[in-house]
Design a protein that fits this description.
- This protein has eight helices and two strands; from the N terminus they run αβαααααβαα.
- It has about 210 residues and is mainly alpha-helical.
- It has a domain of about 60 residues.
- Strands 1-2 form a two-stranded antiparallel ribbon.
- The longest helix is centred in the first third of the chain and has 34 residues.
- The chain is globular and about 60 Å long.
Length: about 210
Amino acid sequence: MMSNDQLYRVISIAVLAGIVGFCLLHFLGAGRKVRSAGPAGGKADLNRLGLIERASYVLMALTLQALACTGMTQNIVTGGKLTGWFLMAHVGSGGAFMFFLLLTALLGAGSAAGPNAKFAPSQRCAFWATLTLGAATALTMMVSMLPIFGPYGLEVLRDVHRYCGLALLATGYWHLYQTFIVRRGRLGWLLSGKVSSDWARHYCPEWWQVAKK
């Protein structure tokens, strides 16, 4: 019978390979058609997100990747537990991730909800899923530091923590694929904060109706 660490190793490899394979199949089946139908070029004349908002998204994504590398490498490569420098780096990355997660929640909630939402429905789902899974991942580890749980309770919290983290990572990879591969012009938008009217009308028609007034 597999231990919890061995089971997590198998599931994490399957999930990471699965999300890559699913993105590839999606692109071959529908993604490339969506991309080719999107607007190419055009004057970027609509302000979408400010510098601080864009920076918070980028830094949250980078700290999430740092958490994945520090938290999963030992388990996937050797099947062992998280120890040593990997553990220290993981804890440090966790603090940075929680800060940028909170900042993203505060700055991005208005873009993901309400009548003037700047995000498309799929982006709203990714945004709220990221916040929910991110909060669950962070809180389970913070709660486990309280001196109220025995060995079994700590083991359960650790499993919830890392499976929520795995789901968060899969959500992040899917969102990055949708953002930079399926949709055109996202790198330029990320750098400048502006999009063209054609881009907004095609990808975010609800926001475009508000922004053009």
